[in-house]
Amino acid sequence: MNRLSRISAVVGYLLLAAPPVASAHGIHGSAASLSTLEFVPLGIEHMLLGWDYLLFIVGVVLLAGKMGRAAKLISLFVAGHSLTLIVATLVGWQLDATGSLTWSSH
Predict the structure, then answer these.
(1) Are 21 and 51 in contact (CB under 8 A)?
(2) What's the whole-model pTM score?
(3) Residue-number span of the structural domain to which 69 is assigned
């Protein structure tokens, strides 16, 4: 493991241990009344500023070795993650705080 990888790992662990990282998504009870389209700007903001995404990007760049390969991997992740969220929303899947998955009837 090279020096940059070790430093990145330490910084990542420190960030994950910080309390604000636990609420990186910034979605609170007030978000329950938002429509699907109102979540789009929130999702874009989170992908640009959310610590979990930023750490993911740093990790992919370090492991990919080349910027072109990293860009492809990150793009595939974003597409897959977006598709998953869109399908879950359209199907009506809901996940509560206990981790129980329910379906809402449309």
Answers:
(1) yes
(2) 0.55
(3) 44-106
